[in-house]
Design goal:
Layout lengths: L3 E7 L18 H7 L2 E8 L5 H9 L2 E2 L2 E2 H6 L3 E7 L8 H8 L3 E5 L15 H13 L6 H4 L3 E8 L33 E3 L10 E3 L14 E3 L8 H30 L3 E7 L4 E2 L4 E3 L11 E7 L6 E8 L16 H5 L8 E3 L5 E7 L2 E6 L4 E5 L15 H13 L1
């Protein structure tokens, strides 16, 4: 039952790269530690692909006879820390003022075109520094002695637009990088032009991608048969490096909290996911809509509490009552006593689809060309097997409910 909350919301946060969500290729020890004391949701869906709309709905979510912000302000100030950049269209200060935040601190990080050498120099490092400065006591100790805030909310979209994490965060043996073959006539270096090994296709000499890309610009591309089979792995590891940066920064925040006031909850939530090779696409909102892009990690850490994983499907807005200071987190006892009548149905507004619905058992998409896709949930986590043509009655049910609405 924290008296105050720090909330970190991130665009482009993929559960596939977080070890609390089963990642076997990327280590996030701080997120592991946070998930070990508190509540972790397995199936949280965002209500909109438009981040500002998702956050607006979260911040104005009704809890009893008041909204979330009003409920929090009974305990102190509610403040937002976000980025200010010419490339970001959302005016966070205007949105914060519109919904009722007490203050909005805009940070304009200096973004370099190459990867940083130090964590503090990264864009995320500069943004998190503003949060740590807000948490740190003044020289006279006044901030620690008389905290005036109830919730500090930091939001960033840098995972979607600038990958400047120090590459040493993801250790790889650079000596193993492939180089241009010295002898292109050596058949050992050949691969068919389409990557398929067709004997009728003239062979070409190919070079494997490096373990980590040097570019700070995130990809938005579709992998084709002509790409090297390790291309997806290279992009995944480069993204994993950026996630490890987030993990390291979270450990710094947790350290400051531990020194100043251990009775502070720390929440990490995604406001959108990231395609990391599903259906051949890599990037943020690249390609057709997929459930890994709208099903987001959500971890609420409360020091000293028992760990609990919440398996039920929920919208991100349904997490908000847990982020009110003084409210108790769900417990194993309340989980066992949860009453669920009927199937949960969450609709996500998307500019890439006419309709997107997630239920306990299904993920249904009606694409812009009026074709339908259907995936069995939660088993088919990455939307591998489209069963729309084998479950026509289910598809008709979703199409019919759309027509009635």
């Amino acid at each position: 039952m924290p008296r105050r909350w720090i909330v970190i919301s991130l665009d482009g946060l993929a559960g596939l790269a977080l070890s609390p969500y089963g990642s076997s290729w990327n280590d996030t020890p701080e997120l592991d530690r946070l998930a070990a004391s508190g509540l972790t949701w397995d199936r949280v869906i965002v209500p909109s692909e438009e981040t500002s709309e998702t956050l607006r709905r979260c911040w104005t979510h009704r809890i009893g006879d008041q909204d979330w912000l009003q409920a929090c302000r009974r305990f102190g100030r509610v403040e937002l820390i976000a980025e200010q950049s010419a490339t970001v269209t959302t005016a966070w200060n205007e949105l914060a003022d519109d919904v009722g935040f007490d203050a909005c601190t805009l940070v304009e990080p200096e973004l370099e075109p190459i990867a940083a050498e130090e964590i503090e120099s990264t864009g995320l490092g500069q943004l998190f520094s503003a949060l740590i400065d807000r948490l740190s006591p003044d020289d006279d100790g006044s901030k620690a002695a008389a905290p005036d805030w109830a919730v500090l909310w930091l939001h960033s979209d840098l995972l979607t637009r600038h990958w400047d994490a120090p590459r040493w965060l993801f250790p790889v043996d650079r000596a193993d990088d492939f180089e241009e073959p010295e002898d292109p006539s050596d058949p050992a270096t050949w691969e068919s032009a389409d990557g398929g090994g067709d004997a009728n296709t003239p062979p070409v000499a190919v070079t494997a991608p490096p373990p980590l890309w040097d570019s700070t610009t995130p990809p938005s591309l579709r992998i084709t048969a002509a790409d090297h089979p390790d291309t997806v792995t290279s992009w995944m590891q480069t993204y994993g490096c950026q996630v490890r940066l987030v993990d390291r920064l979270l450990s710094w925040v947790a350290e400051v909290i531990g020194r100043s006031d251990p009775d502070i909850g720390l929440a990490v939530v995604g406001t959108s996911g990231m395609a990391l090779g599903q259906d051949g696409w890599i990037g943020h909102r690249a390609g057709p809509l997929r459930s890994p892009e709208i099903q987001v990690p959500t971890i609420l850490h409360v020091p000293g509490s028992a760990p609990l994983r919440w398996p039920y499907l929920v919208s991100l807005v349904d997490v908000m009552p847990h982020l009110v200071p003084g409210n108790r987190l769900a417990t194993a006892a309340s989980w066992g006593g949860t009453s669920r009548s009927g199937e949960t149905e969450i609709t996500t507004a998307s500019f890439r689809a006419k309709r997107a619905v997630t239920t306990d058992r299904w993920f249904y998409v009606r694409d812009l060309d009026d074709s339908s896709r259907l995936y069995l949930k939660p088993d088919d986590r990455d939307d591998v097997n489209d069963v729309a043509n084998r479950c026509l009655d289910v598809v008709e049910g979703f199409s019919g409910s759309a027509n009635r609405s």
